[in-house]
Specification:
alpha/beta; Peroxisomal Thiolase, Chain A, domain 1; two-stranded antiparallel ribbon
């Protein structure tokens, strides 16, 4: 009788332990790790200096004095330096007549550099890639860019392929999210995320201020990221994904239209950046933080913020004048490093002010903007590369990524550093020079004379020397 009772106790307990083990084992195999990543640095002959930028602007005969002044102000205040990169067709003075081949060549040069390097360095064969995600928003071709990569590297016929277009500057975290979800369904996979933007076919040659601004901000770049959920490879991993949150405000007309590709009044296609963009970005940013904060911050900080917010609301109800500054949640209680999208100086400063970040926190994003410009969806990985090159990333540190994109979208995620990191990646030749003492753009020094010109008599000079 005692043996029977013992069996009755042991059987359900054994089943419970078995199910618990399976659940934990399943969770263990669903983790998303970054094994390696490689940012893209184009060749030296594609550097966009201040003098050459002036020559490119001069070639646009549709610009008047007011547009010249607008571009002068935009370039000087952009936070972009003289060592960023542009597509080849700009150096060949063909930005007004780009071809499909220009866009394809721009992408293939990036593929050959970054994908080859990341696979070679990690010792992963193209045939071992199980998932391929490519995001290039403004170049849709047939066969797709993903198909070109598969053909170039002779990947397996059963590779899972996702080719994303039109997703904007926040697309790389969307790509990571796709990989994360695939990893939840199958064990022992390796994924390659390829993120970039094709500028060649998207140069704007008109004079609409909201559209020529994109020419000043966006630069050539890209990144290839190798991810895995293989538990056997976690000791080689660089980062582990803790959580990822996506916010999309496309249902709001104001948000949808603030950042959109369209034609101007003369039929020239360009990328419109509207005046409502800051408001749309702020709204999406706040909504995203509401969701991700409870996932990444300690309970004590969430409790503090809740109490302070409640007390402030009570004070407002009692007093018609209101009470003091709004409460700010302290993200540093759960985050060690901030990896912000390099959408522009105003974007970086705005996010920094909203989150009460210091100069040290914003340095990686500001320096990335200065050295490489806004490389769209790949910009986050240049910022991450800066942190690594500066040897900031230590085992156990938590890195917060946040990006914005057309739609309007705000995507964010948190990575945990799995081991001490210090590779220089794409910053190898210049990291010791950063941060420079002075970030002043020399464009004003060379082209400030435009501000003193008379619109009635203004003539573009033959040379801008």
């Amino acid at each position: 009788m005692d043996n029977v009772l013992l069996l009755l106790y042991i059987a359900p307990l054994s089943y419970l332990f078995f199910k618990l083990y399976n659940l934990l084992d399943q969770k263990r195999h669903q983790c998303c790790y970054i094994l390696d990543y490689q940012c893209y640095k184009p060749t030296e002959d594609r550097k966009l200096s201040t003098l050459f930028s002036g020559e490119v602007i001069k070639r646009n005969t549709n610009l008047g004095l007011s547009e010249y002044k607008f571009l002068l102000k935009a370039i000087v205040s952009s936070g972009i330096g003289e060592q960023t990169y542009a597509p080849r067709m700009v150096f060949e003075a063909r930005e007004n007549q780009p071809t499909l081949d220009d866009g394809i060549l721009e992408m293939e040069e990036f593929f050959e550099d970054s994908i080859t390097k990341v696979l070679s360095r990690s010792g992963v064969s193209p045939s071992e890639i199980d998932v391929l995600v490519v995001n290039v928003s403004m170049l849709a071709i047939v066969p797709s860019l993903a198909a070109r990569i598969i053909n170039r590297y002779k990947m397996r016929e059963d590779v899972k392929v996702y080719n994303l277009t039109g997703m904007g500057c926040s697309a790389s975290l969307i790509s990571v999210n796709i990989v994360q979800n695939v990893f939840k369904c199958q064990r022992n996979l390796q994924a390659l995320v390829v993120t970039s933007e094709s500028l060649s076919p998207n140069w704007y040659a008109g004079n609409d201020r909201s559209m020529i601004l994109a020419n000043c901000l966006f630069r050539t770049g890209g990144c290839a990221i190798l991810l895995t959920n293989k538990v056997a490879l976690k000791h080689r991993a660089m980062f582990k994904l803790k959580c990822l949150v996506r916010t999309h405000h496309g249902a709001k007309d104001e948000s949808f239209n603030c950042c959109i590709q369209r034609e101007d009044e003369t039929g020239r296609v360009g990328f419109h950046l509207g005046k409502t963009l800051p408001k749309a970005a702020t709204r999406a940013f706040v909504e995203n933080l509401k969701v991700i904060s409870p996932k990444i911050l300690p309970i004590r900080e969430l409790a503090r913020f809740t109490i302070v917010s409640f007390v402030r609301k009570l004070s407002q109800l009692r007093s018609s004048k209101g009470s003091g500054l709004r409460p700010v949640i302290n993200l540093r209680t759960g985050i060690d490093h901030f990896c912000l999208h390099t959408g522009g100086k105003a974007v970086i400063d705005g996010v920094g002010q909203s989150l009460n970040l210091c100069k040290y926190d914003l340095e990686p994003s500001r320096m990335t903007l200065h050295r490489y410009g806004n490389t769209s969806a790949s910009s986050l990985w240049y910022v991450l590369g800066y942190m690594e090159a500066k040897k900031r990333l230590k085992k156990g540190d938590r890195v917060f990524m946040i990006s914005f994109g057309a739609g309007f979208k705000c995507n964010s995620c948190l990575w945990e550093v799995v081991r001490d990191l210090g590779d220089r990646n794409v910053w190898d030749d210049c990291i010791d020079e950063y941060p420079p003492e002075n970030l002043t753009n020399p464009f004003m020094e060379k082209f400030g004379w435009i501000n003193g010109e008379d619109e009635a008599t203004f003539v573009v000079p033959d040379t801008l020397e």
